[in-house]
# Entry
Amino acid sequence: MTTEDVPLLAGEHLTRVFGRGRDAVRAVDDVSLALRPGEITTVVGESGSGKSTLARLLLRLLTPTAGRLLLDGRDVTRTSDTTAYWRDVQAVFQDPFSAFNQFFTVRRLMARARRLLGPDLTDARVAEALEQVGLRPGDVLGRYPHQLSGGQRQRVMIARALLVRPRVLIADEATSMLDASLRATILNVLTDLRAETGLAILFITHDIGQACYVSDRVLVMRSGRVVESGPTDEVIFAPTHEYTRRLLADVPRLHG
Ligand SMILES: Nc1ncnc2c1ncn2[C@@H]1O[C@H](COP(=O)(O)OP(=O)(O)OP(=O)(O)O)[C@@H](O)[C@H]1O
Ligand SMILES: [Mg+2]
# Structure
């Protein structure tokens, strides 16, 4: 295997079981995936299919019941240094409002990255991250969350994730709370980022319609398992699994 073949981040046979015995839920069941620089991979599936559990495993917020996590081919499943890991792998979640402390300005929220960055967290770096998501630092740094629009809040959350210059960004329903036009703007921010910085993005959504706009590869999850995966065009336009067809049927404009 040459070095180019080694994925940036890979999950191998990841499994996470919650509960025991008859009540056990296999929230993620033998899922393998590989993220590469500059690629957007989408995980799509209905509510409860295990998408967020997979995200939390990849973020090392949960320990897998079975399977491995490899960063640059190195097994990091149980290494103790999560701080170093989180400099490489960052996340954005669904509801930016709940992630904010309402009494914190944007400046103060961004300063929390000091935990991971130490003295490397400079004003210039904060400004750079805000500009990367199309915000003017002077406009937003002094504001409180309620003084920002929903789209601005989600951009701030992406900027905060970018502060550490991660190589992987996991976006779990990061656009689901936004209306169609704001969603398109955020999706553009993500696609620009991967082109400019080579960021690998894992985009998680219950809406297969969103998958086709941004992603290079799609994984379809159902009941913790990947039922179908491949290049976006193949999965969207030539789905082999009945479940994928059913998800697509809810997006009539795709085939119209
Ligand atoms: N901490 C937990 N303890 C017990 N069960 C859990 C826990 N977290 C998730 N589950 C269960 O695991 C399954 C997958 O949940 P998960 O949140 O990963 O799905 P999801 O695809 O993200 O759904 P949604 O689209 O609603 O966000 C569900 O059956 C859920 O109830
Ligand atoms: Mg979820």
The first strand starts at residue 9 and ends at 18. The pocket of magnesium ion (ligand 2) is lined by residues 51-52 (CB under 6 Å). The chain has 13 helices and ten strands.
